[in-house]
Amino acid sequence: VSLVWLNGEVLDAAEARISVADRGLTLADGVFETIRCEGGAMLWLSAHLRRLAEAAALLRIPVPLSDSEVEAGLAALLVRSGLARAALRLTLTRGPAARGLWPPGEPIHPTLLATIAPLAERAPVRAVLAGSTRRNAHSPLSRLKSLAYGDAILARIEAESRGADEALLLNTAGRVACASIGNIFVCLDGAWITPPAEEGILPGLARARLIPLLGAKEQPLAVEALRRAERLFVSNSLSCTPARSIDGGDLPPQLPFDPAALYR
Amino acid sequence: VSLVWLNGEVLDAAEARISVADRGLTLADGVFETIRCEGGAMLWLSAHLRRLAEAAALLRIPVPLSDSEVEAGLAALLVRSGLARAALRLTLTRGPAARGLWPPGEPIHPTLLATIAPLAERAPVRAVLAGSTRRNAHSPLSRLKSLAYGDAILARIEAESRGADEALLLNTAGRVACASIGNIFVCLDGAWITPPAEEGILPGLARARLIPLLGAKEQPLAVEALRRAERLFVSNSLSCTPARSIDGGDLPPQLPFDPAALYR
Questions:
Q1: How confident is the model at residue B60 (pLDDT cuts 50, 70, 90)?
Q2: Would you say the pTM of this structure is higher than 0.80?
Q3: Euclidean distance between CA atoms A150 and A136, whole angstroms
Q4: Helix intervals (H) in chain B
Q5: Cβ neighbours of B113 in A, within 8 Å
Q6: Do B29 and A149 touch (CB under 8 A)?
Q7: What is the ipTM of this complex?
Q8: Selection from A147, A193, A196, A148 nearest residue A171 by Cα
Q9: What is the rounded distance in angstroms from the CA atom of residue B164 to the CA atom of residue B166?
Q10: Do the chains contact at B139 and A152, CB–CB below 8 Å?
Q11: Contact residues on chain A for B127, CB-CB shorter than 8 A
C-alpha cells in the first residue's frame, strides 16, 4: 500500500485525494521540496523547511503546521513506508478556492501533502542544450521550487527527441543556467564553476554544500564555455548525476567527489 | 450542489477528486481553457478545443476523448448546473504518474476535468505595471494556456499591495506584454494597438476577434508608449474589462465597443 501524509494525517494514497478546486492544480499556486531519506534520517530537513517557508512567504501562502509538526508527520510517513532509502516530497499549495486568479478576500485553507518513493540513483546522462525554451531569470519563481515545471518538461521532451536523457537550459539572457532537475557544475581548465543565483536558477541545497566541497566558483556560463567543458554533473537534494555527453560530445562520467561525503 | 465533469462523468464536486500523483498538481503539467456560456450556448467552443489540442500536442499529452464527446460532456455539465451565464473551465493534465520529471515509458492516463461557475463581470480596474516579475517571451508556454499562473499571481499580489486590482506584465525584453488574466488593447493617438504573439503573450480568442472589430494593429508596446495610453482594456474569453487607471493616472473606463458584438 502506498501511503501519503495529507494535512496532518497519514493516509492510503488511493483515499488521499485533492480537491478539483485546489489552486496547486488549477494555477500551479504552490511550492515543494524533495528530501533525501536514508537509514531513517531526513537529510537537511531544517534547510528544506526554511526554504519552503521563504518561498511560501513570497507567495503569501501560510504554512498550516509548525516545523515540528511537519517533521513528526514526515517521520511517521517515512517509518510507515518501510523504505530504507527514500525520496520524500513535501508540497504546499494555496488550497481549494473559488474560480479566478486572485479572488479577493477568499479564506485560505492551504494543502500540505507529502508523498514518498524509493530513492533512485540515475545512471550518467546524455545531456543536450535545449533550444525549445529558456529559464526566466526575470521571475522570482525561477529561484524557488514552484510547482511550475513546464519548461523543464518541454526541455526533457526535446532531449528525448534528440536521443538524450537530460536537458541543459539557457536563461533569458542566453547563458547556461541549469539542468531540467538540478543545478550544474562544470569543470573548465581543471576548475569547477556553477552559475550564480541571479542567472535564473534554483539555488539548491546540494549546490550550497558542493561549492565549498569542490572549491567551485559561482560564475555565469556562456554557451562557448559549455562547449569546452571537461566534465559536468547535475546536483539536487536527492542525488548527483554526471553527464557522459553534451550534445553528443563525450565526457568522462565520473563525479569529482564521493556522494557519501555530500549527503550526510 | 456544485457539479464537475471528470474523465467523462458528471459528479458532485465533493466526490470528484484528483489523485495526489496527478502531474497537473505536482508539476503544472497541463493546459486549460475557459469558455463563456450564455443562454445554453458555449461560445467559440470549437476554437477553444482546437487551441487545447494544439497545446496538448506540443506537450505530448493525449486528449482522451473526441471533440464531440467533450462537447457532450460540457453541455451536460452546463445544463445540470442550471446557470444561465457561466464560466466553464476545461483542464487537461498528463494525469497521475510515478515520481520524477519525466519517468521513461510511463503509461499516460490524462485527467480531463471541467468545472463551472457563474460568469462574473469585473468592474473597471486600477492597473499597475508590475515590477515583481516578467513574462518569459522565450518559452512556448507563454503562448499557450499552461497551468503555470505563478507569475500572474505574483503580479496580482504586487498590484494589491500597491492599492490596485490588476497588473500589467512586462516581457523578458522589457516591453509591455499583457495583463495578469488577459490580453491588453491600448489606445494611442486615437488608434488601438495590441502586442503581437512573439511578445510572450497568450494569443487570446477574444483578442483575435477584437483586432478586426477595432481595426487594431499588432505592435510591440514600449513602457513609454503605455505612459501615453489614452485608454486600455483587458480582454479574455470570458469578458473585457476597462482600466480606470494605470499606476494611478486616470483613464476613461469605457470599452470602445459593445460586448454583445464580441461575445456571440
A1: very high
A2: yes
A3: 12
A4: 23-27, 45-58, 67-81, 150-161, 205-214, 223-227, 259-262
A5: 20
A6: yes
A7: 0.97
A8: A196
A9: 6
A10: no
A11: none
